[in-house]
Amino acid sequence: MSFSQSESLSISLPSSTASLSVSTATTTSVPSVYCSRGNKKTERGKRFNHSYGNARPRNKNKGRGPASVLVPP
Question: How distant, in Å, are the alpha carbons of 5, 8, 43, 53 from that of 60?
């Protein structure tokens, strides 16, 4: 019985070190693309980056072009 406990202990130690190495590898300062926040061409990306542009104009009447009209099928 003590042999099986030491065996499970030896198995759990490498898995804990592996999880530590994975967690340190995943800690990046800026996510690459997370729910289009990193995409600077979308309005959500502009809001996340605190910038303005064609996708997020300061004046909401500018920059988006004419409103699209829905055509019934």
Answer: 66, 62, 12, 11
Domain positions in the chain are: 30-58
DSSP string over 17-61:
HHHHHHHHHS--SS-SSSTTSS-TTSHHHHHHHT--SSSS-SSTT
Token pair for residue 63?
A: 């920059």
pLDDT at 50: 82
| Distance set, CA 37 to CA 5, 8, 14, 44, 49 (Å) | 47, 43, 36, 6, 8
Query: What tens digit of pLDDT does each residue of 26-44 get?
Result: 555 555 555 677 787 788 8
Residues of the chain with pLDDT under 70: 1-35, 60-65
